[in-house]
Amino acid sequence: MEVYQIPANKVIMQHNMITSGRYDFTACQLDILFMLLACLEKGDDKDKEYDIHVQDIELITGRKWNYQQLREASQDIGSRMFEIETTEKYIQLWLFKSFTYHTGKGYFTVAINDKARPYFFELKNNFTRMQLKAVLSCSSKYAKRLYALACQWRSAGVVKMTISDLKEMLSLKDPKGKTKEQFERISEFQTKVLDIAKKQINEHTDVQFDYDLKKRGRSYELIVIYVDFKKEKQLTIDFNQSIEFQKAVRTVTAYGVSEDMAKLIAHKNFDEFLKLIEQMKKGKTAINDPAAFIVGVFQKKGVISIKS
Q1: What pLDDT was estimated at residue 31?
Q2: What local confidence, expressed as pLDDT, does residue 284 receive?
Q3: Would you give the distance in Å from CA 254 to the centre of its chain?
Q4: How far does the signal peptide extend, from start to end residue (predicted)?
Q5: 30 and 124 co-located in one domain
Q6: Are 118 and 128 within one domain?
């Protein structure tokens, strides 16, 4: 058996269906998934099984893996269903076929479910790129999931969704209402999920994570997640403008749009901008100059003067 040592700076790629899918994995089960992703190579035989070495994660994170906890995690993972829902179909899927533990050798072997292989290998342009050490260094399962979501949306800078949709993604709420919703009080959801995730992501990963909750009427219904690279220059705060507006401007300028034009877009048209980014991501034709394309769209809408 050849010992495979995974480098600490390993970048893993995860299918977006897994990133934003609906499933409830523990932190340990997520680490098994991420370690498996680190072992995959393009062109792997369809029957290949993957050895995961306990020492690898210990070297990467400096944290000990409890071998008994691993066995319990993989035993329980067999009952954890992964759900994929599109406009055409709804799929119930189990990612793994088997786990084999090699007594006294410090590693175990994972076999991928045949039906799940497309979500590991047929990525095309539909994948999330993230740092293995970063996601392993977060101890909260919610921090791991939200870090992956942040990486998926890092180019846009902002993702907006209903709190209900986010809870369903994290398996805190059953879309069919058959089980009791967890963290029903918004303050509890913030302190036990969002704030812990924010702290861990900002301390241990390569992205800066922040969020705002928005009300519709008297209740909080929407969450806006902001994602910025830590390596980028810190945003200078103008106290005459709201923080939300300044973050919106920063998001638009990330696509190469000048600050003056970005302010015009962010002023009253930021939701339209986010919809445009979504259309660009889903488009089949590559856009060589995103800034020029965005400016052109908003010139046609009369938001930006042709002479700007």
Answers
A1: 92
A2: 56
A3: 19
A4: none
A5: yes
A6: yes
With respect to residue 159, please indicate whether it lies within any of the assigned structural domains: yes
**pLDDT tens-digit profile of 244-273?**
787 788 788 777 788 788 888 988 889 999
* 215 within 8 A of 156, measured Cβ to Cβ: no
Question: What is the mean predicted confidence (pLDDT) over 209-214?
Answer: 92
CA distance 18 to 83: 9
User: For 89-105, how does the pLDDT look when each residue is reduced to its tens digit (9 = 90+)?
Assistant: 888 889 999 999 998 88
Tokens of 21: 């899918």
Find out whether 19 and 149 touch, Cβ atoms under 8 Å. yes
Chosen domain end from 232, 267, 297: 232
Same domain, 71 and 104: yes
Per residue in 228-258, is it b (16+ CB within 10 Å) or e — as a string?
A: beeeeeeeeeeeeeeeeebbbbbbbbbbebe
Here the CATH number for the domain that contains residue 70 is: 1.10.10.10
Confidence of residue 149 (pLDDT cuts 50, 70, 90): very high
Pairing between strand 82-85 and 158-162?
unpaired
In contact, 130 and 148? CB cutoff 8 Å:
yes
pLDDT at position 230 over 70? no
Closest CA to 146 of 223, 93, 85: 223
The answer to whether the CB of 135 falls within 8 A of the CB of 9 is no
- pTM for the full predicted model: 0.71
Q: Identify whether 284 is part of a domain.
A: yes
